[in-house]
Every structure is written in C-alpha cells, then in structure tokens.
Write a structure and sequence with these properties.
It is globular, with a radius of gyration of 20 Å. Strands 1-2-3-4-6-9 form a six-stranded mixed sheet, with helices on both faces. Strands 5-7-8 form a three-stranded mixed sheet. The longest helix is centred in the middle third of the chain and has 20 residues. The two termini are 35 Å apart. By secondary structure, it is of the alpha/beta class. It has two domains: 199 residues, 2-enoyl-CoA Hydratase, Chain A, domain 1 (Alpha-Beta Complex); 47 residues, Lyase 2-enoyl-coa Hydratase, Chain  A, domain 2.
Length: 261
C-alpha cells in the first residue's frame, strides 16, 4: 500500500496521504513521497492543478512523534536526525509554493502542528465543516516554530501568537475568518467543492496561472516600490504571450478563446 497515492484526472493531479493509522503524520517516508511527487508534477506541464488530501479520519496530525522519539537514541540525542527532518519538511513546504501549479488542500478532521503548517502553505484550502486546526506543540513542550513560518504569513500576528502559545484549536468558521482557509462546506460536499475549484483554475490559461503564481509569492517579499517594478515586468511578459493576445481578442469579439496551452 503506497503511503502517498496519486490519481490524475485530466489536468488535475490528486495526491492523497495514505497513512490513516498514524493520522497521515509527516513521517520520513511521507515527506520523501511528497517531495518526489511534487518534483514530478512540477516537471509535468499537462498538470495544471494539484489537490492534496488525507485518508481516514484526519488530514494530517503533524510530525511522527514515534519516529522523533526513536531518533533520540542516537549519540547526539537526535540532533542530526531532527535537523534533517525539519530541513526536509521545509523543502516540501517551499516546493508546494514554488511549483508552477496551484495546490489546493482538501482538509477534514484535524490539521495540527506541521499538518496545520501544510494547510497554511498550500495556495488554497477548503475544509469540511467541523475540521479543527491547531499548532499544539506547546502542549507537549515543543513550540511549533517551523509551522509558525507559514501560519504567520496567513493569519494576523496576534491570532497566530495566541494559537502558538495556548495550543488551542480553531474550527472552520474561525479559520475562515482568520484567512487560514478559503471556506468550509459540509463533509459530504467537500470533494465536489474542491474538484469544482480545481477544474475552474485548470480551465484558465496555463501560462498565465504559472506566471501569476510565481509573481504572487515573489512580490510578497518585496517593498511596495520593488513589487510594482517587478510585477510591471511580469505584466509585460504576460501581455506578449500569444495566448493572452488570443484571450483578449476573444473577449472583445464575445467568443471563447482558442488557446494553445
């Protein structure tokens, strides 16, 4: 049984974390599987959108604490293993945002610690009503410092700090209000809602979405002046795309565009 299942349907790739007995924890094997699949998808231009979900009763419960405990038996107390774990996890998170395809988290049950980080990292997130989100490491004496990176780039700082220091859960209504997820829906409608969003995005001009995702994250790290200069260059690049020219012509002529990509 594969720890990460991949199913492609046209331009949409669906990755499902498949370790329900461990609540889809980000174990060494899960991180390796995610990294491999994301790298493969990044090199597949026919894939335009990625859906990430979890099997069983939870989306993802964070890092695998049993593996982390076992690593402490090393002579260095696990320091090398822990550094490697967090480095590889950071690489997966950064890859999600650097691949050309938008990644949608399809969330249910719980998303805790690095699982909440995964939700915050994905470009979009839809959740089943009643899903709980938390960065709860503080409850066991482990402050969620790496999940904090993604969390503080999604929700207001005071809300993030409260979550990090109290370990409390937030449910979907609050998660939506904070900006951690786009929206929630009934459990039995989640898959349909996510699929509809994926197909909507996949129906747009692929080169425009790829360009836009790269620019979205690029400009966010810049000053206002630099961001406008950078995105101005991106707009010029986009306008010179022949498919963009066709899209504008089709709009003016009140017809559907015929795109090459």
């Amino acid at each position: 049984m594969a720890i990460l299942e991949r199913h492609d349907s046209g331009p949409v790739a669906h990755l499902r974390m498949n370790a329900p007995e461990r609540l889809n924890a980000l174990s060494d094997a899960m991180l390796d599987a995610l990294q491999t699949s994301l790298d493969e998808i990044a090199a597949t231009p026919d894939i335009r959108v990625v859906i990430l979900s979890g099997a069983g009763k939870a989306f993802c419960a964070g890092h695998d604490l049993k593996e982390m405990t076992a690593a402490r038996q090393a002579e260095d107390g696990g320091a090398a293993a822990f550094k490697d774990l967090f480095d590889r996890c950071a690489r997966v998170m950064q890859t999600i945002q650097s691949i050309p395809q938008p990644v949608i988290a399809q969330v249910h049950g719980i998303a805790t610690a690095a699982g909440c980080q995964l939700v915050a990292t994905c470009d979009l997130a839809l959740a089943a009503e009643g899903t709980r989100f938390g960065v709860n490491g503080v409850n066991i004496g482990l402050f969620c410092s790496t999940p904090m990176v993604a969390l503080t780039r999604n929700v207001p700082r005071k809300a993030a700090f409260e979550m990090l220091t109290t370990g409390r859960f937030v449910e979907t209504s609050e998660a939506t209000a904070l900006g951690l997820i786009n929206r929630s829906c009934p459990v039995d409608a989640l898959e349909t809602e996510v699929r509809g969003l994926a197909e909507t995005i996949a129906g747009k001009l692929g080169s425009a979405v790829r360009t836009g995702k790269r620019a979205f994250y690029g400009q966010a790290q810049m000053s206002i002046e630099d961001a406008y200069a950078y995105t101005g260059r991106v707009m010029v690049e986009n306008m010179l795309d022949r498919d963009t020219e066709e899209g504008i012509a089709a709009f003016l002529e009140k017809r559907d565009p015929t795109w090459r990509q």
